[in-house]
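Q: Hi! First time doing this. I have a protein sequence and I read that you can turn it into a structure. Is that right? Here it is:
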Amino acid sequence: MKDFDVIIIGAGPGGIFAAYELMITKPELKVCVIEAGHELEKRQCPIDGKKIKSCIGCKSCAIMRGFGGAGAFSDGKYNITNDFGGTLYEHIGKDLAMDLMNYVDKINMSNGGEGTKLFTTKGSKFKKICIENKLNLLEASVRHLGTDKNFKVLTNLYIQMKDKITFVFDTFVDDIVANSDGTYDVVTANETYSCRRCVVSVGRSGSSWIESICKKLDIKTLSNRVDIGVRVELPAVVFSHLTSELYESKIVYRTEKFEDKVRTFCMNPYGYVVNENTNGIVTVNGHSFDAPELQSENTNFALLVAKHFSEPFKDSNGYGESIARLSNMLGGGTIVQRFGDLMRGRRTNESRLNESTVRPTLNATPGDLSLVLPKRILDGIIEMIYALDKIAPGTANDDTLLYGVEVKFYNMEVAINDRLETSHKGLFMIGDGSGVTHSLSHASASGVYVARLISEEI
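A: Yes, that's right. Below is the predicted 3D structure, encoded as structure tokens:
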């Protein structure tokens, strides 16, 4: 058995910033980070668009797991706000949550993110324009690192930590055992590790694992939600007046038909649509680069509808997975459809896609999303596209591309106190795996917060 003061399970943003803060505040502590995926430099997806065009089901998905977590190959967007991205502020207070997010931003800026722009929606003229068209523009400051600089920041952080903190990669944690003396055993296939404090930061890809651990340790969980929708891709010029000032605009629309809320998410100016694999299910996402020579001619963003379930059905993630599996079954992965074809009730084929004025940045299967998405969700997405067309004319163009499905899985919200600690003293749940945070900035801030608590106690 290997003994440590602190074991962190998961090397996503929460785990990274927890480890980094412990290294700074208590360098004498023995800290171990156990990660199911690869080191950053070994994270390479085999899909090259030529020989390998679709997901081959790698044992450990290089996009979703590894140092940096699922955010490593994102476009490195840090939204500094309490208005969205999680409910961390409900546990630690709004002011402290903002302070921690700004602290994370400073660390990023000193480790390769310098020179990137901090955008803000505060005082924007687009707020009024959105309201006039029944849309709500949420307020936030957005630091866009870009996929390239985000990778650089993660590389620099790892270089600083690798000789001071024990990293164990390509290792799945089978179990967490709570001992009677207040210590914890972290069990893997080849080794058992012991610690005084255990920090769980496994991200969304660890949702089913966390659920099983909570059940075993009798930790209460609350029902969750799932966001289902599509990723929209269109010429960058259509949204350029918004993205040049705001970069990312979080816009919410309440549908007239059902009064459901549809929101834009993860906007990527001059970006690329990409696949991601969650527990063997292929869904769609997007990213963008900071360097102009790496940019595309398109902008992409998600349109998502949140679904909550109660009695008798509570498995929100299972519902989202079933829709994603249907898409995978019909399209062999991701489906792409022209908006014009969707509105005419016909599937997009290779011929229509080739004639489109929008050149797709992802090699997806032409198809019919109406055979995949539930009518209520699809109706809401269509309403939202027409609403966005009023503030960004061209959004509802026939050649606008819709990729499906995009699903954002949320963990069951774990019952934790204001210390982000479970009912077992010394066992902390942070990041998106806790169900409390839903963003890079909130997850990172939660890691710093818990690390400071541990530093004060040990």
